[in-house]
Amino acid sequence: MADVMPTRMRAVVKRGTSVTVSQVPVPRPAHGEVLIGVELAGVCRTDIYAAKGLLPCADPLILGHEFAGVVVALGPEVHRFSPGDRVAVMPVIPCGLCRRCAADEPECCPHHDFLGVGRHGAFAEYVAVPANVVHPLPDHLSFREGAYAEPVCAAMAVRKTAIHPRERGLVYGDNRIAELTKRVLHSAGFDIVDTYAEDSATPLETDAYDYVIETRPTGPAFDEMIRAVRPGGRIILKSRPAAPVPIGLRAVLRKELVLESASYAPFAEALAFLAKHDVTDLLGDTYALEDFTDAFTADGAGEERKTFLSCRPR
Ligand SMILES: [Zn+2]
Ligand SMILES: [Zn+2]
């Protein structure tokens, strides 16, 4: 924590079609907000889509939404945190007014704002966020693990669907989300879960699975998934593609398949999962903020490991 708060900070800023590391003002925490010194931030496909202009975004915009850091200042009316607290943050900022919010499912608020898309995000030395999306980071979790909580939260959402541990399941895709999803299922007692690499030479068995979890949203991938799932089975949608995806609905209807989706589990459950399961083999290199283009390239290309940006003030 800085003794005297700086007034300017480094941040990865998107302005129109250009993305650069710029000096920008340090945000002031508004009413109900917490100012966090960002330690580490993970790079995600959503950040890359935003950087490429594939998603509707605020402009100018500081990118980044997966992060952990240290509380440095509190806005008015925030009593739950103190400067120096280690924290991780859920990037879904709920509206606080809708049915999902009233049902205490803020992570599923359909009217949410999203850090690094609709409002300034975490590829910066500091970020101000509402206190209700800030979670204490357990002492034995590293900032890297804390910054990985949002992908875990997304993977854990599959447990909210109607799939059952005794069914035969498939996670379609050969990437870290697929691997993480498989681990989440195993931890919940789902033992009969295969994974399938989309470039595999062996085609999937026909009508073989009670459910298929999608992590690769392309037309050909959906053709394969629809073929592999049994009649009356489920396809669980997990991806967040930037553009619409063609799905062979005639084949879906012929087999009376159920298409089900699940966005997030409660963020606290993701932190609890990380406290019990070692995922460090899914976590990759850390780059300086200035090298964000290298980090974006590595993350987009590698797929096996999460890439991070070190955001701590120098
Ligand atoms: Zn993400
Ligand atoms: Zn809401």
Automatic annotation (TrEMBL):
Keywords: Metal-binding, Oxidoreductase, Zinc. Residues 16-309 form the Enoyl reductase (ER) domain. Pfam families: ADH_N (PF08240). Its cofactor is Zn(2+). InterPro entries: ADH-like_N (IPR013154), ADH_Zn_CS (IPR002328), ER (IPR020843), GroES-like_sf (IPR011032), NAD(P)-bd_dom_sf (IPR036291), Zn_alcohol_dh (IPR050129). Signal peptide: none annotated. PANTHER family: L-THREONINE 3-DEHYDROGENASE. This is Alcohol dehydrogenase.
